[in-house]
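EI: anyone free to look at a 331-residue chain?
SC: sure, send it
EI:
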Amino acid sequence: MKIRYGGLFVFLVVCGLADGRAVDILNVSYDATRELYAEINPAFSRYWKEKTGKRVSVQQSHGGSGKQARAVIDGLDADVVTLALAADIDALHLAAGLVPVGWRQRLPEKSVPCRSTVAFLVRKGNPKGIKDWEDLVKPGVAVVMPNPKTSGAARWNYLAAWGDALEKTGSPEGAKAFVAALFRNVPVLDSGARGATTTFIERGMGDVLVSWESELLFIKSLRGGEFEIVMPPSSILAEPSVCVVDKTVDRRKSRKVAQAYLEFLYLPEAQEIAARHFFRPVNPEVLAKYADRFPSVRFFTVDERFGGWQRVMREHFSDGGTFDQIYQPQR
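SC: here you go
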């Protein structure tokens, strides 16, 4: 069942019987997790039924991560959020006091149940010879990616490009010039990662799609002969974050099941599901089992190269920040 909330669609995934006896929670997530939670939710329902004897239904909402955070701030009743980056959950605290300041410490791995990175998808044969970040700024290369103002994936893209350029040029000015040149090669900015995928795959626009590794591996699994994945030698370690929305679960008295839902994401069963959907598990045993699908990358992190998310959001993505300074929409 599909429910419309403003410009968003909320999908109701019913696990067990959808009657008045079922516990009901809403997970507000980002674009690239649709297939992941379509499998996670019924697995959690079985787990919860075996553990407690009770049924649970999970409603699922997807969209650009920044837009999803704004929807929760504006009143979308999320019991949990599973968003693309920690800064979007920080916004729930800063803008509305929906979660506490120390939310990262409430779950393992600083509330990151799986990881990813940023890579490139090119058309068969790689006609533009894309191998590394600097190839994206060459004349005549059309790059497809979403908008950093609305999409968590796009912020990871931006920071991956900036961090690589910062290392290679040795200066913030060099990184800024590189990312400005990159966005001059972006003809249109979609609002979320899945919209950018549609632009590249279905509309046939662009020479290279920059996105989550998980998204690109998913595409390759469906239409492998049409596309190739290019993994740059250096990229960012993307860490999507999860959190119980305290004000919602306390009002709805759903904290116990909401907390259990997020804790389930760290159990081996859910870690296996994450790996099958091309997210890098945080469980080392499960990661080792699926190591052949996750190529080695020289990772850098937001904390190491940018000084953390608060600084990133203030300097790069606030109104008038660096992204606004460098991006000029194409006419």
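EI: The two ends are 39 Å apart (CA to CA).
SC: 👍
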